[in-house]
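Protein Entry — a single chain follows
Next Lines — sequence and tokenised fold
***
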Amino acid sequence: MAIPAKKPDPDDDAGSSNLKASSLAQDIRTREVERQERSERLVMLLALAADGNHDAFSEFYDLVSPIVFGIARRVLVDRSLAEETLQDVMLELWRQAPRFDQAAGSVTGWVSTIAHRRAVDRVRSEQSHRNRHEAEALKVEIDFDSVAEAIEGDFEMGRLREALTDLPAAQRESILLAYFGGKTYRDVAAELGIAEGTAKTRIRDGLQKLRFALVEVG
């Protein structure tokens, strides 16, 4: 004999819903308490750090660094740049700790504002560096072209070799790497183990001497 299925009891459904709502409310209250305790902890740690307490700042670092890195990574995308920005931000937080004003907002908000500003500054800095690098590369290309205009055929290449031989060794090596090796200022500096500014100067001065020598002979 079949046992009739038990009909759903509306009271059971209501009880289950009430239980879930109560559990959710409790979870929200717990999280709010945890958030408040964390906020108070950050204020205390920052105050101690402002007095030079390194242990307090170490704990502060552990608590806020994920926030800082997350913001930097979203703005910069590149992980290595985000990591560098994280260190810059944490150093600034250490220095600016005495200036934090609790009345102006939360520690998390203060940290997030500094992190975002630093990340945006880094984006602008990287873009400026790229623009400068491209302009420098174009300048080298123009300088090389002006030398190349004085060179036609094997005879002129012979003149170029002679003119290169007359250059100081440092200038000759830099020009050979840049002109014939197709390397940028930065590449030349890295390969020769010299400052980028030094590489620029050697290439510029060497090219000027080459132009003068080739035009004078011509």
